[in-house]
Amino acid sequence: MESIRFPLIAALAVVGFFMYQAWKTDQSPAPEPQSPSPIEQIAADDDVPSLDASPSVANSADDSNAGLADEAGETGQSPRMTASTDTVVVTTDVMRAFIDPQGGNLVRVELLNYPVEADSDTPLALLHQGNRSFFVVQSGLLGEGAPTHKVAYRADRSRYTMQPGQSLSVPLRWTDADGRQVTKTYHFEPGRYVVGLDYSVRNDAATPWSVSAYGQVWRTEADSSGGTPFVRQFDGAAWYEQKDAEGKYRFRKADFGKIDDEPLDVTQTGGWAGMMQHYFIAALIPPAEQTVRLVTKPSSTQGYLTQLIGEKAEVAVGSSTTLSQRIYIGPKLQKRMEDVAPGLQLSVDCGLLTPLSEPLFWIMDKVHSVVRNWGLAIILVTLAIKLVFYKLSEAQYRSMAKMRKFAPRIQSIKDRYGDDRQKMQQAMMDLYKKEGFNPFAGCWPMLVQFPVFIALYWVLLESVELRQAPFFLWIHDLSAPDPFFVLPVLFGISMFFQQKLSGQAMTMDPMQQKIMSAMPIGLAAFFTFFPSGLVLYWFVSNLVGIAQQWYIYRKLEHEGLGRK
């Protein structure tokens, strides 16, 4: 019984884990359909950040700017659903950005290196706007008469194209009748998904001017229908939160249901905040030394908001100042994000197994840099893992061999003591002690490998590098299930032969044998829903395990522990 107990528990744990993931996905509230609405509607001014929302400001509320309204119109309208006719289009080597002069907001960003589908020429639009769904980045200034994300800017021209190896700046200009001037400038760098944003503020009015820069990511909940079963894809807010005054931070996230229940409102130094969409993120990044206010909340109209409000700046009469922030809009590339802002790479979230997932991905990435194929990288990493665990596997098979050797004596003890379980257990413990083996020694290799299996599952699920990554022949996307179920079938066959080679059935009763015989079929069917990269890992792991079993059993036969 001991020889079958742990494999059954491990199999049930695997199934239970992924059933839980599926349940979480099913329990997530589906987005409610929104009705089309007029685009010219101006936002209500009752719940926008005011100047007193800026850190370090006390009792200096600016009633004239008391609302940048969550964004929507007075009747709960969506943002401008049609960009102005003079929308500024910026094309770089990695993105195409659309800036609406009405507010100077990023209303659409297409990621040129990430098509919607593997064989498509249509780039994925991370930021977008529509009547039923939207995902936009808005920004502006807070202060008396300051240009919020709703005012009109003047653009020098409507088309910008980055030249090879050169940066690109896109200025938008605003002035008022009192002599105040603001130039809102977006900065694009070659090969980068970081967009710089500067406000050059000039005060030629008769009185000093207090202003504060802010940004907000505003979006509706994505439609999760048609996703892969048993695969939980996170959608929601994410931020890097300061834990204490000593400068310790932690990565936090909240899905839309949690934002409804627990809105965020914290003041801290640095960090970042944004919205995630599985492999991608749009994040607002302030200067590291600046005190900022982070807010996540449901919009008073529709969708959800993540806001970042910077410190107040005093602009004296006749003087100028510059306020800056950055925006990351793109894929969650760990190596690149690590250089952009502290903790941004943690948005590749593998949960509690992140300490294990990170080195696994690092190794896979190094191998991939040599073989240039993620499927081959998975195979080679699998071989390395099996080599690392070889001694543990040998201990497992040695324990199983001893269990088979002493199976007749164990059965004799069971027959002798019948229903007296206390005496039977004592007799078995005496046997184990006398013969010098632990019947549970074979559990440890599986116990160690199980977290690796789950960690690699998260690596394959969260790493955008594996999105649409081809392998060979019919496998065009290692992050998606095998379209022809070949790998799950091969996995089931390999598991069947592995069971036969282990000879576990020799120590089982007829019911246990039936359960074990059904496991390859059941798990093969279950794995049809899994990313093909994960199934490839487990199939190769089984093949290497079969080879190791054969070799180890030959050694054990020379020691008198063979299966004969």
Structural overview:
By secondary structure, the chain is α+β, with helices and mostly antiparallel strands. The chain is built from twelve helices and 19 strands. Strands 7-1-2-3-4-5-11-18-17-14 form a ten-stranded mixed sheet. Residues 1-10, 19-47 and 57-77 have low confidence and may be disordered. α1 (2-27) runs parallel beside α11, α4 (354-371) crosses α5 and α6 (390-405) packs across α12 (532-558).
Low-confidence stretches: 1-10, 19-47, 57-77
What is the strand arrangement across the widest sheet? 7-1-2-3-4-5-11-18-17-14
The CATH class assignment of the largest domain is: Mainly Beta
What amount of the residues lies in strands? 25-35%
Count of helix runs: 12
Shape: elongated
Please identify, by name, the CATH architecture of the largest domain.
Distorted Sandwich
Could you say what the CATH topology of the largest domain is called? Beta-galactosidase, Chain A, domain 5
Query: How many distinct domains?
Result: 2
- Report the average pLDDT across residues: 81
Main sheet summary: 10 strands, mixed
Q: How many extended strands?
A: 19
- Which structural class fits the helix and strand makeup? alpha+beta
State the helicity in percent bands.
Answer: 25-40%
Distance between the termini: 20 Å
Computed over alpha carbons, the radius of gyration is 30 Å
Short summary of the structure?
The chain has 564 residues and is an alpha+beta fold. It has helices at residues 2-27, 256-261, 334-340, 354-371, 374-388, 390-405, 407-417, 421-435, 443-462, 486-502, 510-526, 532-558; strands at residues 88-91, 95-100, 105-115, 123-129, 134-142, 154-155, 159-161, 168-175, 180-188, 194-203, 209-219, 235-242, 249-255, 264-269, 272-277, 280-285, 291-298, 304-315, 319-331.
